UniProtKB/TrEMBL annotation:
Protein name: OpgC protein
Membrane spanning stretches: 12-31, 37-64, 85-105, 144-161, 168-188, 194-211, 232-253, 265-288, 300-318, 330-350
A family per Pfam: OpgC_C
InterPro entries (UniProt xref): UCP028704_OpgC
Transmembrane helix as UniProt keyword: yes
Species assigned in the record: Paraburkholderia phymatum (strain DSM 17167 / CIP 108236 / LMG 21445 / STM815) (Burkholderia phymatum)
Keyword terms, alphabetized: Membrane, Transmembrane, Transmembrane helix
Length: 369
């Protein structure tokens, strides 16, 4: 067995950026969210988050496997599943408590409804049971149940991906193609009503695993074929941007994101290919070394995701709504900056409390695919 490669500082940096973007995306009045990926593409930070999650999961599985063997690696991810489930329950609790406080103080009625607090008040025992059994996920906690399932499958997927990447990709692509009927068949657990259909989104998680297990060699990226793919990716990204900015004037139906539509997959893959070019040149590693606080956010991902939900709710509520024009824009921008600083401080606090992280190393661009 080959020794495990060190975790990539580029991956931690991207994870940190995505976690900050997720917080901003969930502040309805955010100014900076108009500069984020979803404003110029048919995909958004969720695709990046899930794909990087698959990459990081494969790295973690291989690290434990090389040191302690397959049994320990399986046990680690069973524990990880429980950790994510507890984080989900905490996120749901924080969301509901936020809704209760906002309703009590007669603040931010829109957010009160989004938190699901009114429905929980009407039938607390029923709602608590459905939340605990993943039948319903309060606002902002909806991505975590999907990760509970993904953590369970890592010990099965990674070995297959290592031995036969085409088989792993074929199984994953077939599951993605059948995601809607599979969700309906699983309606006993209301999977068809999840914000993220796990049968669909597992495709990006598996792609992330494959990128870790079988990175694209640098010589292929620099070959004529690689340069041609780069030109195609640039054209695709520009085409999707024009479509999003000038053609699709209305919000897209939610089921396209829920079931990970083909357009979102293609748009994400084009962006990902261009990102690998920046990684190969070392540009991302240099940027990451200059922004260690963002890297730390990526290293403390679960804590920052849970805390970020509360940060977004607080900032959205605290941002004045009786302003207009420049005053409103400046207040919203101040809220964005406060949210970013809060996430950075949370990552630093959590990292210090948990102890020093394992050393990270910048790796070659090919190792980050």
């Amino acid at each position: 067995m080959n020794p495990p490669r060190p975790r990539s500082i580029e991956v931690d940096f991207f994870r940190g950026i995505v976690l900050i973007v997720i917080v901003l995306d969930h502040i309805p009045g955010s100014v900076l969210q108009h500069l984020m990926l979803h404003a110029y593409a048919l995909c958004d930070s969720a695709e990046v988050f899930v794909c990087l999650g698959g990459y990081a999961s494969a790295a973690a599985y291989n690290a434990v496997l090389s040191k302690k063997g397959p049994k320990a690696a399986q046990t680690r991810f069973h524990k990880r599943c429980w950790e994510i489930y507890r984080a989900y329950l905490l996120t749901a609790l924080l969301t509901l408590l936020s809704g209760a406080i906002l309703q009590r103080l007669h603040l931010n009625r829109t957010m009160v409804d989004l938190t699901g607090w009114p429905a929980f008040c009407a039938a607390p025992l029923k709602e608590a049971f459905e939340i605990a059994t993943l039948r319903r996920q309060p606002y902002l906690s909806s991505v975590l149940p999907m990760y509970v399932l993904f953590a369970l499958t890592v010990p099965l997927i990674v070995p297959v991906a290592r031995k036969s990447p085409l088989t792993a990709l074929a199984i994953s692509a077939t599951t993605w193609a059948l995601a809607i009927p599979l969700a309906k068949l699983s309606a006993i657990d209301d999977v068809s009503n999840w914000a993220f259909n796990p049968f669909a989104w597992q495709l990006l998680f598996v792609i992330g695993i494959l990128c870790r297990e079988h990175p694209v060699p640098t010589d292929i990226q620099e070959s004529r074929t690689g340069r041609w793919l780069t030109k195609v990716a640039v054209a695709a990204v520009l085409a999707f941007a024009v479509t999003k900015l000038f053609i699709l004037t209305q919000p897209l139906p939610g089921h396209l994101k829920q079931n990970l539509s083909i357009e979102r997959v293609i748009n994400f893959l084009a962006i990902a290919w261009l990102a690998t070019g920046l990684i190969r040149t070392g540009a991302i590693a240099r940027l990451a070394h200059r922004m260690p606080a963002v890297v730390k956010v990526g290293q403390t991902g679960l804590a920052c995701f849970v805390g970020g939900t509360l940060i977004s709710l607080i900032v959205d509520t605290a941002t004045p709504r009786n302003l207009s024009g420049l005053s409103h824009g400046l207040a919203a921008l101040a809220g964005d900056l406060i949210a970013i600083v809060a996430v950075l401080l949370l990552a630093r606090f959590w990292s210090d409390w948990k102890g020093p992280a394992q050393p990270r190393a910048a790796v070659t661009g090919a190792d980050c695919r």
